[in-house]
Design goal:
Number of strands: 8
Structural class: alpha/beta
Largest sheet: 6 strands, mixed
Helix content: 55-70%
Distance between the termini: 61 Å
Radius of gyration: 27 Å
Strand content: 5-15%
Shape: elongated
Oligomer: single chain
Length: 621
């Protein structure tokens, strides 16, 4: 049994290596080069030691301690990621503070989409640029090859990552092994480079370069891109495999490679044009380029899958319109595909590649989204540590201030790149933030308007039971968002058809602030009168609601359904923007447009379409 558990843990660790560490694992392709060339820093020994020391201690403080030790503790029933952290934090805070937590979480999630667009462009371009090292005449082919790889990557998404995913772990195992090996081969030629672990070199670099060192932080942070994935993918693998992979292989391989590049620069400063690929001997260059391209595709896959998961969470928590969600694996619930998100990401990525043309140019845009999300994670972690876990204020505040200073330094350094490309993730983030908040506020406004027109449920049922209209055989299920008012579809059915089914079920589906709901506590069934029933079904934000699943569970509570004798009634609202107080007119019009393009409730809730009756209702916002 123990051997079986050990084997399972090894398998999970290998899988985590492939999915979680793709982004941070490809950072050596461009980080050290960008630290020097991006800011005009001379490749002198002091500067090489100083920048290596900054990279090393950034990996230790931000990834090894902040994320691996502290943030991984903040799991929402085993799930991680900024939306899960937001849901966890807002669950215990006061009502007055809840909106602040929500806004922080939403903005952090919005920035993630910016990262999901820039990461594939940056990673694949930097790998393809290895061809220039192989032969300068290959330069015109770099962008076409990068675009071809990206189009192929997004085109394959609809087939799912289940089959490709089995290759991710072994490929990344080979990648990190090669990173470490290339670093060691160069370090043995200049072993003195290992002294850069001394933090004095980082301090000396900052002290002597002042503003220049501060600007360099904007490139040092490239070594940390993908750190948020450690937390976001916790639900897939668990904390232990992620920690084992980091301390056992990823961190040593990254450090060895960065120090190997530093040793190469000490011996040959001119190799700064591409120190990563120049670590390899000429005969190994082409295989390394191929392996690097595979690694960058895997890194891109991780953020694309993350964008799917984040969008599903946003839909379930009420911050996004319903979209088509396809499950690409019968075994893994987390493997999903959202066609709209996929093709929207591809278009955005291709536009970014065409505009910026090279990874050097794109480095200016890279960093703001990552550091902004890191800073927001630190702030939300403070809320969880203080309110949820009841940590003493000095402890929670001390840890937050320490990591907050580091995150703020990185974020502010990246803000200085605002006009040279940094505007891109911020603009993308603001657009996503506006869409999510507009949808949430619009839905609340719509429910308020419907509630104003709704009749009290108790007196309505009492009158119907006392003076029943014509009854017809069968069961009518009315989907409704409220527990107290009469569903509009029910009123319209009575008004136009002047009949009532012999059994009426009012069904409400709710999404909770937890990722999954236990089947035993999913359902609440209450008989309101001899012919009226109320069913409340609860789902987690990582689950897909299913009306058929709800009907099957109702049998446990004495409410059995014959599907061919059951009809489902839905309201289809026609929303009209008006001058009434609510939202700004332009936001109301945006909400109306989003509502028109949302996935139909019948598809989202998996209702048999041949059993559905839709009744229109006009609502003025």
């Amino acid at each position: 049994m123990q051997a079986h558990n050990k084997q399972a843990m090894t398998g999970l660790t290998l899988a985590a290596l492939g999915v979680v560490y793709g982004d941070i694992g490809t950072s050596p392709l461009y980080t050290l080069r960008e630290c020097f060339t991006g800011h005009g820093i001379a490749t002198t020994p002091d500067n090489i030691f100083g920048i290596l020391s900054l990279i090393f201690w950034s990996l230790i403080f931000v990834v090894s301690i902040k994320y691996v030790v502290f943030v991984l503790r903040a799991d929402n029933h085993g799930e991680g990621g900024i939306m899960a952290l937001m849901a966890l934090a807002r669950h215990y805070v006061t009502h007055a503070a809840r909106w602040k937590v929500v806004l922080l979480g939403l903005f952090g999630a919005s920035l993630f989409y910016g990262d999901a667009i820039i990461t594939p462009a940056m990673s694949v371009l930097s790998a393809a640029e290895g061809l220039e090292v192989l032969s300068p005449s290959m330069q015109p082919y770099v962008m076409p090859i990068a675009i071809t790889v990206l189009v192929g990557l997004f085109a394959l998404q609809r087939f799912g990552t289940a089959s490709v995913g089995m290759l991710f772990g072994p490929v990344m195992l080979a990648w990190f092994s090669i990173l470490g090996l290339l670093g060691i081969l160069q370090i043995v030629q200049a072993p003195g480079i290992l002294a850069a672990v001394n933090p004095w070199y980082a301090y000396n670099f900052v002290a002597h370069h002042g503003v220049g060192a501060y600007l360099t932080l904007g490139s040092v942070v490239l070594a940390l891109t993908g750190a948020e994935a450690l937390y976001a993918d916790m639900g897939h693998f668990g904390k232990t495999p992620i920690r084992r992979a980091w301390y056992g292989l990823v961190l040593p391989a990254l450090v060895l490679n960065y120090f190997g590049q530093g040793a190469l620069l000490m011996l040959k400063p001119e190799t700064i044009k591409n120190p990563f690929f120049l670590l390899a001997p000429q005969w190994a260059l082409l295989p390394l380029i191929i392996l690097a391209t595979l690694a960058t595709v895997i890194a891109s896959q991780a953020v694309i899958s993350g964008a799917y998961s984040l969008t599903r969470q946003a839909i379930q928590l009420g911050y996004s319109p319903r979209m088509e969600i396809s499950h690409t694996s019968e075994k893994e619930i987390g493997q999903i595909y959202l066609p709209f998100v996929n093709w929207a990401l591809l278009v955005a990525v291709l536009v970014v590649v065409v505009i910026f043309k090279s990874s050097d140019n794109l480095a200016s845009a890279y960093g703001i989204a990552v550091t902004g999300t890191m800073l927001i994670t630190t702030l939300l972690f403070f809320v969880v540590a203080r309110v949820n876990w009841r940590w003493p204020l000095p402890l929670a505040l001390g840890i937050t201030i320490f990591f907050g200073i580091i995150d703020t330094a990185f974020f502010s350094a990246n803000l200085l790149k605002l006009f040279s490309g940094g505007w891109l993730p911020l603009v993308l983030g603001m657009i996503i933030f506006m869409l999510m908040t507009t949808w949430k506020q619009g839905r609340k406004l719509l429910f308020d308007r419907l509630r104003e027109q709704a009749l009290p449920l108790d007196s309505f049922i009492e009158n119907l039971e006392a003076f029943p209209p014509t009854r017809v055989q069968g069961t009518a299920v009315f989907l409704t968002s409220t527990l107290h008012g009469v569903p509009h579809a029910l009123l319209h059915n009575l008004k136009h058809n002047k009949v009532l089914h012999e059994r009426i079920v009012l069904m409400t589906i709710r999404t909770e602030d937890v990722p999954y709901i236990n089947e035993d506590s999913r359902l609440e069934v209450v008989q309101l009168s001899p012919s009226f029933w109320r069913v409340v079904a609860r789902y987690g934000f990582k689950e897909d609601p299913s009306v058929l699943n709800v009907l099957s569970l109702c049998e446990r509570d004495g409410l059995a359904f014959e599907l061919m004798d059951t009809s489902f009634f839905l309201s289809r609202e026609t929303i009209i923007s008006t001058e009434r107080p609510g939202m700004a007119r332009w936001r109301e019009r945006l909400f109306v447009w989003m509502s028109k393009n949302a996935l139909r409730a019948t598809d989202f809730f998996q209702i048999p379409t041949n059993r559905v009756v839709e009744l229109g209702a006009q609502v003025e916002l």
